[in-house]
Amino acid sequence: MTGTTATPSPARIAFPALGTTAVLLVTDPRALPVAEAVLRAELTAVDLTCSRFRPDSELTRVNLDAGARTMVSPRFAEALQAALRAARLTAGAVDPTVGNAVIALGYDRTFASLRPDDARPVPVGRPAAGWRLIDFDARTRRLRMPPHTRLDLGATAKALTSDRAAERAARATGCGVLVSLGGDLSTAGPAPEGGWRIALADDHSAAVHGPAVAVTEGALATSGVGVRTWRRAGRTLHHIVDPATGEPAPAVWRTVTVAAAACVDANTAGTAAIVLGDGALDWLRSTALPARLVRVDGTVVRLGGWPPDAPPATTGGSR
């Protein structure tokens, strides 16, 4: 007598976190409670460390100390190093010193609290202070920023959290894990048969998703200019700032999705592509990372061996 054993479907949980939606999938449903505890712990830690909306966060304290030398925690140091590495790899297209510019544009509170149509005039954009002016000793964790500089660790910290949570949950459970925080998705451990089926969309919370890809390892990140938008003085603004101008990056690409070994790298490349606009294609080709770019008119460009579009799947979206 012969028979087959059915492979259980991945278990899933989703909940609000970091101003977006946290999604967790595990290949062994019994592992879900342990993996969820790991994810929630990582989310709590990054919020307390890197949130620019919490008066008690370490980032708030560091920004208030700009101009003075201060010591930072190991977790803050890890997040800062990820942000500085992103700046170095992108020649400053992704720069953590855009904090003042983001606030000046009106993104000075949680996105859910923003006034969708603000009548105040938009200030004249000013270039970011520049990541090269940050004096940081990784060994002693001593940091000094130029006076009046504000860091915004934003996207890289969220992507780093996806990577950390997926790796920690996989080690704790011994099964395959997928963590998605808005558009930042990381996997660890053995993938389900056929890989994780990931849907692509302009908005991760949309009811209808677009084409799907299968991910067997590594990470995906999607950056876009169509979701986190608001109006000010009759002008539509978005959250991805060009450090060279202090203005929202020109809307050349509606979304950019990049695959990489780590979510931090995928996020860095996708954000840089949005900022670089028409220069994104040559720059992305130089990285050899698979990427799918969608112009504002809906035209799709695929690079680095990105596969043809497949039917929709279950999770994805941009931040």
Q: State the helicity in percent bands.
A: 25-40%
Describe the biggest sheet? 8 strands, antiparallel
Enumerate how many helices there are, as a single number: 7
The number of domains is: 1
CATH topology: T-fold
How does the helix and strand content classify structurally? Answer: alpha+beta
Shape: globular
As a percent range, the share of strand residues is: 15-25%
- Total number of strands: 18
Q: Class in CATH?
A: Alpha Beta
What is the fourth-level CATH superfamily?
ApbE-like domains
Poorly predicted runs of 5 or more residues: 1-6
**Rg result:** 20 Å
Q: N-to-C SSE series?
A: EEHHEHHEEEHEEEEEEEEEEHHEE
Alpha carbon gap, first and last residue: 52 Å
Task: Please describe the topology of this protein.
Blueprint: E1 11-17, E2 20-26, H1 32-50, H2 58-64, E3 69-71, H3 74-89, H4 99-104, E4 117-118, E5 135-137, E6 142-144, H5 154-173, E7 177-181, E8 184-188, E9 196-199, E10 212-215, E11 219-224, E12 229-232, E13 235-238, E14 241-242, E15 247-248, E16 253-260, H6 263-276, H7 280-287, E17 291-295, E18 300-303
Parallel strand pairs: 4-12
Antiparallel strand pairs: 1-2, 2-7, 3-6, 5-6, 7-8, 8-11, 9-10, 11-16, 12-13, 14-15, 16-17, 17-18
Helix pairs in contact: 1-5, 3-6, 5-6, 6-7
